Amino acid sequence: MTQDIALTVENLKVYFGGKRGLLPGRSNTVHAVDGLSFEIPAGTTFGIVGESGSGKSTTALAIMRLVHITEGNVTLKNTTISALEGEELRAARSRFQIVFQDPYSSLDPRKRARSIVREPLDLMNIGTKADRNAHVAELFRQVGLRPEQQALFPHQFSGGQRQRLGLARALSTRPELIVCDEPVSALDVAIQAQILNLMCDLQKELGLTYLFISHDLGVIQHICDTVAVMYLGEIVELADRQSLFANPRHPYTKALLNAVPSVNSSQRSSKGRTRLKGDPPSPINLPKGCRFASRCPQAEPQCSQFSPPLSERTNGHKVACFLAQ
Amino acid sequence: MSKPLLQVKNLVVDFQTRAGNARVLDHVSLNVNEGEILGIVGESGCGKSMTALSIMGLIPSPPGQITSGSIKLAGQELIGLDIDSLCKIRGKEIGMIFQEPMTSLNPVFTVGEQIAESVRLHENASAKAAHARAIDMLKAVDIPEPETRARAYPHQLSGGMRQRVMIAMALACRPRVLIADEPTTALDTTVQAQIFDLLKDLQDEMGTAIIMITHDMGAIAELADTVAVMYAGRIVEMGQVNTVLSHPEHPYAKGLIACVPHLSNMPNPVRERLTEITGVVPALTDLGKGCAFAPRCNAVLDHCYQDKPDLTATQNNHLAACWAADMQSVK
Q1: Is B312's pLDDT higher than 50?
Q2: Domains and CATH numbers, chain A
Q3: Among the four A229, B238, B291, B295, which has the fewest Cβ within 10 Å?
Q4: What pLDDT, in 10s, does the model give residues B60-84?
Q5: CATH 3.30.1490.480 fits B6-93+175-262+275-330, yes or no
Q6: List of chain A residues whose C-beta atoms are within 8 Å of the C-beta of residue B183
């Protein structure tokens, strides 16, 4: 496998609101994403996991250039997509595509399946009309839909089939990066397995690069090569799949793993029952120091004073914690 | 053992639809004892929520109707009760936690008022006493500063807090049976873990019987004593949680357990393919005469398309509705 870097994200920040606060001197800025940096090697899957409000979806939208980037660079191969504007950005969009969470609201109910999948090709003016139709037929085959289903409307498909349509649409322009924002969380478990297998097959067949966002650690463990754990807009731990799950180092990662109910009874009984208390602090008034300190079972006085940087411990395993080895 | 607290027997529920008659529950039988947690698991549309709604007498009618069967709470038949008697049971004897805490709370009343309402109705308590109970309940579900929170409106609380309020409301009159319909689906994993701990503690303290409806096998493993797996309106497997999870008999139950990527602390370096259950859930309007799972089953026999298998005991207290599983146990 080549180790070309498909996507580089440097110090990405997305703030919402800002100086529009009612009172002077008082800021209402929501720090949704606060200084993310990571790289995705081509042909691999990079996972972002975290709870609601941790900024994972905002990261996806920022990389897709669907929300305003406050600061930082997003580079796809050699193009800094965070700097593009207008027509240049529109033209570049064929190189990065997204699969949304909700397969019901992300497909136009008044278009036939074939036009939904062909729309990116039409908009980008790729190939002749005959080429496009042939390509759509090929895409339908790749995602496991029958040719005669091209003429149907979205409501005639089941949830899993709709997500296949979403995948086909994202694949249509042969993008270098596919951002998947919780692509399976709206699906039943049996269907979820079908879609995850399909995504793995497509990756092998076409050499795709995925940015995969999920709150489900089981799914993340299954599909990702590298995993970043987010808490309140920051990456608290970043490591390859093996290292992260075998040897989690950040207390938040440990707590997350601990909270997942397990089917395996032996694993259940041996687990320590340390539960996280309370809710995350507000992303408007961020605490000084480590953002996890108020809920951390191991917090020390220094944790609420200084904010720990994300630093590398052993071969590529990065943690943002003063106490983690 | 004494008689089960809640006894559902051969419950059949039909919905009249434009596409014909849909049998959403087909001879569902289950028992819940005092202090026991029964998990009901299955995909969407399998009838889990309908089972809960029938017990509460909340089947939307028309188009739905309970065609036959019986639901007994401590010996008292609930089907056919008039609305006044039902209202005395709902909230008092049987509490229910709904799936979405945002849409099931009333946005224009404070959460304290909403919890106090059922106490005032069912126990004829004074406003003051009911309010005091509401604060006690908020304290019981681990909400910090219960006095302040009782005056909060639902939108001022986080998702986890709202679900705690729902639980407090359901438990305010100390019901004997608590039905939790996907109580943690809308919540984060860490909050889910808190809610599970809370449910277990409350059950230990009050001896409430809990029916827990979920699609998550992990949640069942964590919380339930017995489990019923449902498919297309029927219970296809039922038994002790540990037996069912470690030795599932029905191919659907097997598939349901195997298709979820399970978290492990020693991930396999080579990524395995997930087990798929091919195909989709059939429409309830045309189930045919055979086993509803037959078209998706990987152990299907000719016989499966002819006759519906009944729930039969394979081992002690372990029931499965499958011809193939039957054959194996005979051998």
Answers
A1: yes
A2: 5-231 (3.40.50.300)
A3: B295
A4: 888 888 899 999 998 888 888 888 8
A5: no
A6: none
